[in-house]
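Weekly modeling sync, notes
Attendees: S.R. (lead), two postdocs, one rotation student

Agenda item 3: backlog of single-chain predictions. S.R. asked that every request posted to the team notebook include the full sequence so nobody has to chase files. The rotation student volunteered to paste the first one in as an example of the format we agreed on. Action items at the bottom.

Example entry:
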Amino acid sequence: MSKQKSFKFREQVIEQLELPKDFVLKDALVTITGRRELLIENYKGILIYEDSFIKIQAKNCRIVITGTHLTIDYYTNEEMKITGFFQQIQYE
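Predicted structure, as returned to the notebook:
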């Protein structure tokens, strides 16, 4: 079975069992409040942290935040809160 078919099969099983996708697939969960607050859950690590650029490693992608006055207010093993003025949020 190809990787893509395997992923689709897992998604179908998760949907039928009504399980939370972010928990089962360990996908990053990104919650944005306006242009000034961002909460990331299920991340692996901080790759780059600068005043205008933050790069976060998730399981399946990298999340890149650009803006001004970016600050990581707090982080735990499960989540982090970033504040500042966001110009762009991109997935690599």
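Discussion: group reviewed the output briefly. Residues 6 and 12 are 10 Å apart (CA to CA).
Action items: rotation student to repeat for the remaining queue; S.R. to check formatting next week.
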